[in-house]
């Protein structure tokens, strides 16, 4: 069955750049009725909005920090009133690194709290609101974790811990909502050539050559290659997939 998103409405966080932007564009390209995009970066968000509008999809764009629970809940409620219903959500927004050093012994409290606030609380706030409104049956939520959610990442312990948390949240929620016909999955990207990776590389946290070279395919991935899997998981084509940890890592963890 070809992926068909006609008549469906989605939300996408982290849509100003990288995987979130590629996901929003693909959902629009695949014929989604509406896509509500959000990000802290308004300039990037506007660019994504303009690209998506070319496909004739209804787009709403909002500046939103996912670590702000009230802002997330009004965004989801407003989206449902604007679109009439919510069929799926891609919770993509995330950060890596920090202002200070990031080892377990030296990480400063502010960096730890920010990492958990965005990467873990952010996904929880999104799901809490989305699950209230999402189509039952038929809804689908995809949370972007990381391969660092199933292995440790020295010098990025907070990041790895937050992504382990995203997987735990996802699998627990999948168990809570499976009987209601809502599927909830996580996607675990490996090394993907986006801003977060390049900024981490500048800080000495990741190395494109080393990590790309350590995959079975011998290269970094592209944001669009992750978006393809997210769109599949949001579509009815993945109707028997829930609670999964879907790696998109060129075989990095294999
Ligand atoms: N690139 C990789 O190698 C890689 C690997 C594994 C997982 N991931 C995950 O993929 C997701 C997307 O990252 P990307 O690679 O596309 O990087 P990216 O930096 O291109 O995109 C991340 C987006 O999230 C937004 N964002 C950051 N903090 C936010 C907040 N508080 N509220 C709302 N939006 C916020 C940023 O403005 C940005 O637009 C992240 O969750 C990241 O952890 C990326």
TrEMBL record:
One biological process term in Gene Ontology: fatty acid biosynthetic process
Gene Ontology MF: a single term: quinone binding
Keywords: NADP
InterPro entries tied to this protein: NAD(P)-bd_dom_sf (IPR036291), Sc_DH/Rdtase_CS (IPR020904), SDR_fam (IPR002347)
Domain of life: Eukaryota
Pfam families associated with the record: adh_short_C2
CDD domains assigned to the protein according to its UniProt record, in alphabetical order: SDR_c
Sequence similarity: Belongs to the short-chain dehydrogenases/reductases (SDR) family.
Protein name: Putative short chain dehydrogenase/ reductase
């Amino acid at each position: 069955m070809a992926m068909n998103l006609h008549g469906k409405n989605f939300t996408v966080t982290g849509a100003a750049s990288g995987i979130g932007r590629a996901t929003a564009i693909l959902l629009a390209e695949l014929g989604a009725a509406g896509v509500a995009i959000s990000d802290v970066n308004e300039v990037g968000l506007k660019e994504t909005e303009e690209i998506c509008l070319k496909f004739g999809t209804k787009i709403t764009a909002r500046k939103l920090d996912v670590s702000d629970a009230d802002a997330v809940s009004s965004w989801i409620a407003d989206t449902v009133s604007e679109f009439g219903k919510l069929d799926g959500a891609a919770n993509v927004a995330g950060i890596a690194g920090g202002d200070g050093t990031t080892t377990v012994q030296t990480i400063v409290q502010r960096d730890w709290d920010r990492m958990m606030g965005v990467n873990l609380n952010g996904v929880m706030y999104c799901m809490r609101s989305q699950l209230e409104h999402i189509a039952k049956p038929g809804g689908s939520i995809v949370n972007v974790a990381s391969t660092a959610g199933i292995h440790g990442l020295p010098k990025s312990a907070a990041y790895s811990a937050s992504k382990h948390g995203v997987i735990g949240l996802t699998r627990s929620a999948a168990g809570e909502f499976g009987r209601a016909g809502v599927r909830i999955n996580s996607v675990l990207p490996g090394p993907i050539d986006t801003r977060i990776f390049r900024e981490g590389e500048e800080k000495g946290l990741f190395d494109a050559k080393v990590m790309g070279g350590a995959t079975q395919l011998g290269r970094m991935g592209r944001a669009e290659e992750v978006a393809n899997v997210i769109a599949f998981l949001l579509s009815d084509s993945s109707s028997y997939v829930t609670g999964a940890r879907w790696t998109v890592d060129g075989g990095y963890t294999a």
